[in-house]
Amino acid sequence: MDRLSNTIRPYAWGSTTAIPQLLGVEPTGEPQAEMWMGAHPGAPSRLERGPLNEVIDADPEAELGAEAVAKFGPRLPFLLKLLAAGAPLSLQVHPDLAQAKEGYADEERRGVPIDAPFRNYKDANHKPELICALTPFDGLCGFRDPNEAADLLAGLGVDSLKPYVDLLHAHPEEAALREVLTAVLSADKDAMTATVTEATAAAERLGGAYAPYASIARHYPGDPGVIAAMLLNYVQLQPGEALFLGAGVPHAYLNGLGVEIMANSDNVLRCGLTPKHVDVPELLRIVRFEATDPGVLRPEAGPDGEEVYETPIDEFRLSRYVLPEGSAAREVTARTPQILLCTAGTVTAGEFELAPGQSVFVPAGETAEISGNGTIFRATVVA
Question: How far apart are CA 11 and CA 18, in angstroms?
């Protein structure tokens, strides 16, 4: 077992205070958006033995276990993060595995540089993800029912939104959502900026259900993503609640601190609320145009106090232990690799005492005895 030293990514949308507060350190004044725990080459965790990706490369079966290597290849299949949103993230979707393989192969064949800002597919993997709230957490997840979206847009009283309202009412669900999102993202830039500006003023005035979109617009004035966001479900998570985001589901995190886990991929297609590359035709090919219930997840009780967030994905499995003071030690063993992350109190994992924000890597087949008074999240895979 090894203590991890992890990199904090300073993305512009990050909170300046949430991660420092969890870690018990003074804020720097700069955004601290994500703390990465894993073997992603962009920011691998560091062990005394070296960067985790290099440790795994040296002996994949010893670190990951034969079953995980056989199923996922010689790399850690997941990336665990602390995510602290102080402003909205980009409105985005992720491809499924077949789409990722196809898109990656196409861009490789066309010679698109892997680090090009206009490249869509950085790898050939899908990127399902799960976010579990540590604080109240706001986000957008999946399309609303078209009639509900129409009513929300109509309530703004903006004449230039009326054609979208009519489309949402007039067509079957998939066609309605596809036509409206396509129209919003393909509209004349100046005309859409004027529409968003008028809609923002109305949202500020009306408040209530419109308040989240007014807030988004303050961060991204005139962005067509503000209108696109109104097509999606607005979700407020309480601490301990989670969202699973599968392929093709449009989503954006807005505000809050959470534990995020995802398949080890960097494939993102954006449609707004970002200065980064937006590829509308490719995004429209990937998006699943269907109204969905966001499906807020709550942990299911397992043996020995483990609380599991059930998902249909094998690349990761997230659970937590809430350890009351004086509780008996628990042995955590898996045939697959594990990362243990403390998020509250003080927890002992093996020989290491962990404060909030501290973590350890447990190689496949090793046992970690955990005890203390606090909360510890467990990330592993299903092999």
Answer: 14
* Positions in the chain short of pLDDT 50: none
With 0.70 as the threshold, say if the pTM is over it: yes
What are the pLDDT digits (tens) for 250-304? 999 999 999 999 998 889 999 889 888 888 889 999 999 999 999 899 999 988 8
What CA–CA distances, in Å, run from 321 to 222, 240, 304, 318, 332? 44, 11, 9, 11, 11
pLDDT at 1: 93
Rounded to whole angstroms, the Cα distance separating 124 from 292 reads 27
114 burial type by CB count under 10 A (0-12 exposed, 13-18 middle, 19+ buried): exposed
Active-site residue, from 3, 270, 317, 320: 270
Q: What SS3 state is found at 154? A: helix
Residues contacting 159, CB < 8 A, separation 6+? none
pLDDT of the residue at 277: 86
Confidence at residue 327, expressed as pLDDT on a 0 to 100 scale: 84
8 A C-beta contact, residue 45 and residue 52: yes
Task: Judge contact between 1 and 48, C-beta under 8 A.
Answer: no
Beta strand pairing call for 300-301 and 338-349: unpaired
pLDDT at 334 (0 to 100): 87
pLDDT at residue 45 in the model: 97
146 near 170, Cβ under 8 Å?
A: no
Active site residue 119: no
3-state helix vs strand vs coil in the chain, percent to 5: 30, 30, 40
Model pLDDT, residue 65: 96
Residues 6+ apart with CB under 8 A from 311: 128, 130, 244, 297, 317, 318
What is the Cα–Cα distance from 328 to 54, expressed in whole angstroms?
36
Work out the angle at residue 381's Cα, subtended by the Cα atoms of residues 376 and 255, and round it to the nearest 5 degrees: 55
Residue-wise over 173-189: b if at least 16 C-beta within 10 A, else e?
A: eeebbbbbbbebbebee
- The helix (H) or strand (E) run that includes residue 176 is helix 173-186
CA 256 distance to own-chain centroid = 12
